[in-house]
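hey m, so remember when u said the tokens were messed up on ur end? i reran from scratch. heres the input so u can diff it against urs
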Amino acid sequence: MHPLHHIELWTHDLAAAAPSFDWLLGRLGWRDTSDPTWAAGRTWQHPSGLYLVLEQSPAVVGRGHDRLRPGLNHLALNLPPGSDGRARLDDLRSDAPSQGWSELFGEDYPHAGGPSHTALFLENEQGFEVEIVVP
């Protein structure tokens, strides 16, 4: 059994946030399992069974996510296994800006997490950070 059941992120603007997550999670092998009758949320499922929910809740206070405030700083997701993870990471890095993601710590890419850690750090327009790790 996977140690996590699901992750739920709240947003103040689902229509603005969903496309960036749809692109990124799709590239990482997650499948869109959204219920078309639920207008307030989107769901993606990883092959392991873990799923991520992005919800525009009426209970959200404020606008945008601030990764520098107490709470969630970022999600760290593994690049799916396969040959040449670094080349696939480079492809994500190249495509990310056109999909609503900005690179963080680009001056230290791909080792912003340390010399033996290969990863890409991205932030979307709403302030959600995702770290893509080459396992």
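this time it looks ok to me. The mean pLDDT is 93. if urs says something different then somethings off w ur setup not the seq
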